[in-house]
Amino acid sequence: MFTTRKEVDEHVHKMFSKVPPGSERDMKGWAVGRLYSKIQEYSKAIEHLNAFLKINDDAGAHKLIARCYKQQKQPDYQKALDHYQRSIQLNPKQPDVIKESCKILIEQSNLCSPDRATFWLELASNVEDLQESELLLTLRMRATASTADSAEQNNSMELVIKKELMSNPNNSLLQLRLIQTFLEKKRIDEAFKYAYKTEMEMPAQSQSIEWYDALWMVLLKSESKDTTKDWSFWQLLLITIDRLLQLNLQSDTNNSLGESLALLFKLDQYVYKFSLLADQLSINGGHELHQRCLEHYSGQFLLHAATVLFKREMLSNKNKWFNTVRAALPLLLLGYQQNSIKEKSSYWQRHCSSVQQKLLELWQHQAAFRCAQLGRTLHGCVQTPPNDAVNQVQGLWPSSSELLETARQRCVDSQWRSQLYQQLYTHPETKLKEKSSHLVQDQRLQQPLYEWPCVAEIEEFEQLALQLAPPTLEHHVYLALSAENLAEAPRVYFYKAFRRDSRKNLSNCSVDTLCQVDVDIFLYATVLQAQRKLEVQRETYNSSHVGNRIAADRPFMFPFANIVGRNELITTEQNSWWNVMQRIHDNVNINDRVESRDQLQFGLEVIRCQNEPHIEIIMLLQLGKLLASREDASYLEQRIEAFYKLAISMMIRHQEHKLEPFYRYFKYLNANASNVWTQIESLAEDALSYLNRRSIKMGNLQEFVKDIRGLRLPMATYLQAESYRQLAESSHASRVARQNFQERRIECLRETKALLVNAADHPLNSVVQRELKVSLPDEQYCSPEHHNNSSAYEDAEDDFYTGAANALNRSLNRSRRQAETQNLATLQLEHTIKELSKQLDTLKVDVGDGMEAMRQEVKTLADKFDSLEELLKKCKINGNETQTREADAAAAAAALGLDEYLNLDDAIQTNFLNTMPPAHNAQDRFFPPAGNVPHSNAAYGSPMFNQNQMYNYFASQAQFMRTPPAPTNLPPPFYGPRPPTNFGVPPNMYQNPTGAPFIDGLNYGMPPPPPSLVIPQAPQSQFSQPPAAPNVPIVSTANFFNSASAPFGPASVQVPQNAGQATQQLPPSVQLPLAQQKLMTATTSIPLSTTGVITSISASVPAAPAPAPAPVNLSATSVSTSVTTVTTTSAAPVPAPATVFNRALNNQPVEKEPPANVVITSSDPLPKTAVATAQPTLSVTIPPQHIKPSLVQTTEPPVLAGSDFTFNLGNKTSSNIFSGLSASTFSFKTQVAQAAAEKQREMAAEAAASNDSVGNEANNSFGGGDASAELDYDPRPDFQGIIPLPDEVEVRTGEENEIVEFSHRAKLFRHVDKEWKERGVGEIKILKHKTLKTCRMLMRREQIFKLVLNMQIGESFSMEYMNGQKKSFIWANFNYAESSEGEMERLACRFKKEEIAQKFLETVQMCIADAKASHASESQSET
Known about the structure:
By secondary structure, the protein is mostly helical. 50% of the residues lie in helices and 6% in strands. It has 46 helices and 13 strands. The strands form 4 sheets. The chain has a 7-stranded antiparallel β-sheet. The protein has a two-stranded antiparallel ribbon with strand order 1-2. Strand 8 (1315-1329) and strand 9 form a beta hairpin. The longest helix is centred in the middle third of the chain and has 70 residues, at 827-896. It is extended, with a radius of gyration of 54 Å. The two termini are 44 Å apart.
C-alpha cells in the first residue's frame, strides 16, 4: 500500500497522533513494523517490534524481527538466531524457521556451538523436506566436528557419513557425499571400489543424476590406468553412461538435448572399444557373457539414438516428421531385434557369480522394456484400422508391409549408417571420429530383419518389463498406455506383500487397509488420465496441421523418454501417493509423518468413492467396467457398485444442472466434449445393466429404481419399467400395489419411447414398441395423432371424448388382461368370461355411437347460442351509440348557447317526416300481401323487423366468409357488379330487383324458395321516381344479396328512434357519376318529397359498426361539415374496411379503428306554415373537435360542378305544407357550426399565446378545429421537479482522443497457477490515438465496467492461435489494467465467430505494422 518512507512516516504519525504514549501505542508496533519491513526500512521496523515484544511475547513478532536482523545492512546473526529460537519455542510447527536457522548455522560456523547445533538438529530431523537433504547432513557434520578432538577433525566428515550409512544404508545422498569426500581427498581407488560395490548391489536403480555424475568422475580418473582387462571397470562404465543418457533424455531442461547428444556419442565410442576387447575380457574361458553384454548395450544405443532423433524434432517444432521417422525406422527394427530374452539358460549362466547373475537379470528386464518401447513405436507409425476412419492420418503408413518396404529402401544404400551418423552428431569434432563409431563399423547393424513385431509378443515384453527396478509410477503407466484392456493382465508385480483385498468396510480408509486392489485401481485411473491427455494432444496436433502431409507423419506412440519427459502425464500428488505406498510396502515407517498418512488416506478415499466425488463421470464408468471384466470380479462387486452408483448420481445431478464444482484428483481433459458424453451414455447402459442384475440378485429392485430415477436415458427408463413389471409379478405385492406398478411401468415405457425418438437404430426401439402394443393394443404408437383444426371448443370437446374413450378402452383392456392371466378352474367360468367380454364390446360400440350423436347435438346447440349472443351484443351496441351521439349533439349546442336554433331546425325536419304514409295493418305486418308484394316498411319491434335484422346478420357473415372480387379494372355496369357467388346463401333466397332481367337466369336450376324465406320488399308503386339522369343511374335496393349494392360493406338495417318519433330512412342506393367517384365534397344534400319513403338507413348498423367516412378536406373558411351517408352500387373512392370477426372469440366484432364521433341533430317539430316551398335537408354534422387531425388535409379541395346534387323520391305535388317550397339546402345547423368554429378558434388562439410547448405548436398547424381539440389533451406534459438535481458531472474515460479500430464482444482468460481462468466478458476494443498514432487494447467487463485489459500494441507484440482454434488467440505482454507499472500476464481471448476473430487479428497486425513504420521513421529522423 505504501511504497516510500515518507508515506509510511505520515501514516504512522497520523495513527500515533490519536493514541497516547504507552502500552496502547506499543501494541501497534507489530503492524507498524510490518509496514517498515515491506519498504526495507529494517532499523525502524526493529524499533517498533521491540516495543511490541516488551508487552506481548508473540511467535510471529519474533520471526519478523529475526528476519529484520538478518536482512539489514549489517546483519546481526546472533540476535536473529536468538529470536528464531524463541519463536520456535512458542510455536514449534514452523518448518521455514527451522530451515532458515540451519542455513545460518552452516554459513556462520562461529555460531555453531554444540548445544545450539544439537537443538536445531533435533528439530530438523522431524521436518520431512530435510530428511535426506544436504543441509541436515552438513549440520550433523558440524555438530560432530565441534565435539571431536584435534586428531579426529580431519576425518570427521568421513566418519559422520559412515555412521549415518550404518543406520540408513540406502540413503543415496549419504552415498553421494561419501564418494565426493573420497574424490576431494584423491582417494580414487577407494572411490571406485565403493561406487562399484554400491551400484552392483542395486544396479541401475538410482534416479539421481548427481549420483551417476559422481560415478563418471570416478571412472574418468580411473581410466588412466590399464583397463583393458578390468571387467568391473567396463561394466560400471557402460551402466553409468546408459543411466546418464536415460535420465538426461527424460529431463526437460534447456541443455538436456546437447548433453544427451554428447553422452550418446560417448556410448557409441565406448561400445565400439568394448567390442574390440573380446579376447582380453574373457571370463571363465568363454566369450558368452561378453557377447551378451555387447548385444544388450548395442540395443540400448539404438534405442537412445531413435529417442534423440524424436526429441530433437519435438524441441525444434519444425514438423519435419517425414524425414525423421524414415531415418529412425532402421534403428527401431534393429533395436527390437537385439534381444536374447527367449533363449534358454545355458551352462555358462549357471556357473556365473551372484554379481553376474544380477547383471543378466538386469539386461533381461531392460531388453524387455526396450523391445516394448520400440515395438509400440513401430505400431504407432501405422495408421489406425479402417473401422476407425475418423482418426486416420493420411501421412502415416497404411500397413506394416509398406512400412517395411520403406525401411528396406532406406537400407539399400550401403552408406545409410554414415549418413545417419552425420545426421546424429552435428559437432565438427564428433564427425571426425566416424571410423571409431559402433553404429558405422559394426557389420551386424548393416541390415535389419524385415519382420513385423506381433502384438502378443510385445505384450509379453511388457509383462516382463514390469519387474524392472525401480517400480516408478511413470514406468507402470507407460507399459499400460497401449493396452486395449487394462484388466486382462496384471499391471503391478512388486506389491506381493499386500493382501489381495481389504477385509474391512470400504468406508474405512486408514493406512493399514491398503491392499493390492487399491493399487490396481489407482494405476487404472492414472493410465486413463494419461491416455486421454495423449489423445487430446494428438487431436490438437492434427487439427493444427490439416493438409500438411510432412507433419502428419508424426507417430502415435514414442519411446518412454519422449513421452514421460515432456507431457506431464502424472501429477505431483499422484506420484507422491505412489512413493508413500512403496515405502509402506518396503516396511519404511511413516507413522511419524502426518502429511504422508493424510496424503495416502485421501487417495484411498478417492479410489473407493467415499465422501465427495473427485473423479470425472466417464472415469468412474470406465473403472467400473474394468473391474467388472477382471477374473476376480465376483469378489469386487461392492467396489463396482460404488463406482457405478456414484457415476449415475453425478449424471442425474448434471442433467438437472445441480452438479457442483469439485476437486479432480484424476484429471480428464475436455470431459464435457460431445464425443465424451456419447461414450458416457454407452458406458452408462452397461452400468445400468450391471446394477439391475445385482439388484435382482440381492432382491432390492425398489432401491435400484430409486437410485436411477431421474436419469434421462432410454436404458434407465426401460430398466425401471422392467423392475416395475417384476415387482407387479411378485407374489408379495397386493392388488393395489400391482396395479400401481403396472401403471408406472406403462409410464416408463412411454418415456423410453419418447427418449428413443432421435435414436432409430437403438436396439430398444423394437422391444419398447412390442411391449407397448402388448400392454395397450388399442392405442396407436406407430403413427402420430392427427391434429383437429376445428375451433377451440371443438378441439377441447374432441379431446374430452377421446380421453374418455381411451379411459374406457384401458379399463376394458385391463379387465381383459386380468381375465386372461387368471388360471381358470373350469370351462364354465371361461365361457362366462367370454360372454361378458362380448357384452362389453357391444356396449362399447353402442356407447361410441351415442357419443357421436351427442357430440353433434352439443355442437349444434353451441352454434345457436353463439348466434343469439352475437345478436344481443349488436343490439346493445347500437342502442348505446344512438343515445351517445344525441347527447353529444345537445351538449355541443348548449355549450355555445345555440340550442334554440337546433330545436327550430329539428322541428322543421320532424314536421316534414310526419307526412310519411301510414303503416300497414296488422295482417300485412305479419304476412305478405297478395301477389307476393313485399312490405314497404317494417315497424320497429315487429317480427318482420327482427327477421330483417337476422337476414342482415347472416348476410354480413356471408360477406366475411368470402373473398371480395377485385373492384378495379372493370367498368361499372348499369346494375352494378354481380358477385361470383351468393356468399353462402342458397339461390333464389332473395328476389331479383326490377329492371335486372339478366339476373333471373342465375339460379342454376334450383327451385325457388318458399315464400316464408323471401325477404319482403316495398311495392314499386309506392315510389314515384323521375327519370334518372344519364350520369346518375338509380338502382333499386330491393334485393341485398343478388345485387352489387355494397357487397362487402356493412348491411343496412333499420334502427328505432326515440319515443314518439317515426323511424328515419335514407333513400335507396345511388351510384355517383364517374367524376364524382374520385372525390366527394364535404356537403351532400338530398331533398325529400312529400310522398318519398326512405327505405334504408346506414347511420347506425346493428350488424357491424359503420365504417369510417373517407377523409374530408377542410378549408379555413368552411364553417361546417355535413355528410349524408348513402348506399351506392359501386365502390367508394376510399373503400371502407369490412367488419372483421374473430371466430376464436365467439364471432365477436373486433374494431380495428377508433369509432368516428358523429352527431345526428334532431329537434321537436315546428308548427306548420302556410307557405313553405323549400324542403329542409337531413344532415349529419361532425363537430370539428371530433375530427382526427391525421385524417385532415390542409389543401383546399377542388370544387366540382354538380358536387351538390338533389333528387326527389315520390310526388312533389303531395298534400304537404312544405310542398310549395323549392329544394334548398338551408339549415340552422350551418350557422350553429359557424359560431362554434369561431368560438373554438378564439379559444385556440388564447391557448397558443399562453402555451409555447412544442406539442401545441405542432397541433396548431392543422387549423382552428385541430387546435381546439388539442386543448383537451396534452400528450407531453411538463412537470417541474421539487428538488433540483445537481450539476452534471463530466465523466472522462480516457478514450476521447482515440479512434476505435475494432470493437466486439469477447471472453478474456488469464493463465494463473498453471491453468486458464476466466477474466471476464465484455467489449474488447483496439484504440488508436489521433495524434500519437499509437494503438492499445482495452476491455471492460460488462455491467460493472471494471478495467481488465489495458495493453499497448507495439512492434514486438505477437499473437497466435490457441490450440489451433480459429476463434481463440493467446499472447503475453504487460497489462496496465490494475497498476500503472504494469504486470506481465499471459492472456487469451475467444470470440463467437471466426469472422470476428479474423477481423480482430487483421486489426492487430495492422497496428503492429503501424508501430514498426513509426519506429522506422523515428530512427531515420534521429540519424
